[in-house]
Each structure stands twice: as C-alpha cells, then as structure tokens.
C-alpha cells in the first residue's frame, strides 16, 4: 500500500520492548490489508507503533485492533506479576 492518508502513532516507553515487538510481528498479517497496515519500530527510548490507512474507517479498525492487542499484552504481563 503506497497511499497513507491517515495515520496514528503509539509511542510506548518503559515497557518490555521484546514482548511488544514479538507480539506485533506475530499479528502483522492480521493487521495488513489493502486499505491499511500497522508497522512497528524500536529505538533506545521504546517502541513506536504506526497505523496507516487510506480512509478513516480503516484507520479506526486498525487502531481498535492495536488497542485490543496492547490491552491483552499488558493484562497478560500483569497476571504473571
């Protein structure tokens, strides 16, 4: 997909970078379709998740998927603590 008209960026700090990256790499196929995609990157400060879409409906759908995934990851971590 070359056209990214709408974008949302999540910046995560003070989290388990490896867990977030591995989780989203696993979900990458589920969060990519003809009208949008999710990409993830890491640096020394933390993890950045970028949601890119052609229309607002697709952006909403992908953002919802990212939020649900983050919620589940953080809740699973809390259960193990």
Automatic annotation (TrEMBL):
Name of protein: Transcription factor Pcc1
InterPro entries documented for this protein: CTAG/Pcc1 (IPR015419)
Superkingdom of the organism of origin: Archaea
One Pfam short name: Pcc1
Family (UniProt): Belongs to the CTAG/PCC1 family.
């Amino acid at each position: 997909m070359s056209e990214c008209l709408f974008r949302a960026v999540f910046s995560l700090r003070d989290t388990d970078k490896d867990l977030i990256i591995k989780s989203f790499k696993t979900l990458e196929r589920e969060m990519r379709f003809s009208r949008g995609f999710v990409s993830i990157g890491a640096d020394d400060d933390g993890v950045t998740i970028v949601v890119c879409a052609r229309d607002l409906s697709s952006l909403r759908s992908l953002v919802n998927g990212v939020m649900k995934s983050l919620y589940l990851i953080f809740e699973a971590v809390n259960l193990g603590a």
